[in-house]
């Protein structure tokens, strides 16, 4: 008699010989390693889909629910919380610094001149 296991994402039971849940497509054994996080982050930077907006809405309306659902194994609907944080950080700092690029470079050149004078 084949053994079954329950999907953490959709909570349906399926044959444990399957590599993926036949109901929702989530991987049966999901290892949370740094390598998996890194590769998923790169993939998510280049493909924003509905998960980004669903994660953003959940984070704004119900803080903490996103992390709780991810820990509980419901991972297909949302972006990984760490990936989401990294993505938002990159977008925030890029949008903040872009308008001031010339002024920042001018300030850094001036700072370099001042520091070079003091070291002589």
Description:
This protein is mainly alpha-helical and 120 residues long. The chain is 57% helix and 5% strand. The chain contains five helices and two strands; from the N terminus they run E-E-H-H-H-H-H. It has helices spanning 34-46, 50-61, 65-71, 81-97, 101-119; strands at 4-6, 13-15. A two-stranded antiparallel ribbon has the order 1-2. Helix 1 crosses helix 4. The longest helix is centred in the C-terminal third of the chain and has 19 residues, at 101-119. It is elongated and about 75 Å long. The model has no long low-confidence stretch (mean pLDDT 79).
Core attributes:
two-stranded antiparallel ribbon; 120 residues; 2 strands; mainly alpha; single chain
In short:
The protein has helices spanning 34-46, 50-61, 65-71, 81-97, 101-119, and strands at residues 4-6, 13-15.
The number of helical elements comes to: 5
Helix/strand order, N-terminal first: EEHHHHH
Mean pLDDT: 79
Radius of gyration: 22 Å
Helical/strand content category: mainly alpha
- What is the helix fraction of residues, given as a range? 55-70%
Largest sheet: 2 strands, antiparallel
Neighbour order of strands in the largest sheet: 1-2
Strand content: 5-15%
Number of strands: 2
Which consecutive residue ranges, at least 5 long each, have pLDDT under 50? Answer: none
